[in-house]
Amino acid sequence: MPRSYTTVFFDLDGTLLPMDTHEFMQRYFASLGAFATENGLDAEICLGAVMAGVKAMAKTDGSESNHDVFWDAFTKVTGLDAKSTETVFDRYYAGPFAQVGEGIAPSADAARAVAALKAKGYRMAVTTMPMFPLAAVHERIRWAGLDPDDFEFATDYETCNAVKPMPRYYEGCLARAGVSGNEVLMVGNHNREDGLATAVGCDIYFVTDHLIESEEGLDVSEHKHGTMAEFADWCETLPQVK
Q1: CA distance 89 to 131
Q2: Percent of the chain with pLDDT over 90
Q3: pTM of the predicted model, to two decimals?
Q4: Out of 20, 33, 37, 236, which residue is the most buried by the measure of CB atoms under 10 Å away?
């Protein structure tokens, strides 16, 4: 019997946002490094500290928010005051970060899928890797040609204490949405990071335009999958939420 849903969780990079993750990280680090230099910081040390923060978040035990884990690691590397440095970084995400998205062509099919789901009464959230502040996540949603207000929430490093592919991350998303896993369709492009949503009862649809597969992940062929255009077509066939 086909699954029915009330809620759709969307991955962002490579799913709603048609951008290669490796390319994004290259552009992001070049931009952030230039901003650090312009603000009197050592770019090499800062970028190394950012990577230390990312690695710390990837191994978090859940006792602190990803935000606190990141800044603890960052300050250990740099010796800088976390609060004042975060204020500097906030200026980056409110301004120069937008330039990283220049030239990205939004997916009309992603917009079509979101519009179809919204019209049919589905609740939606952006469950992206929660290693960025919310301002950066919202900016990337806008790069995708979408409105952050179309989604009930987007995961960020302040509101999460786990990352993909930890089941604890998805448990937190379900709790925040106030739904059980059997009500949720996870839409993503990574067979492990997004596929782990199935461990908490979610169904999965793999978008194949920028598919990432690892040996530890799900077999994409055994689950719903297709291009973003095919996913949008499928969304248009879904029933209204009762």
Answers
A1: 14
A2: 95
A3: 0.95
A4: 33
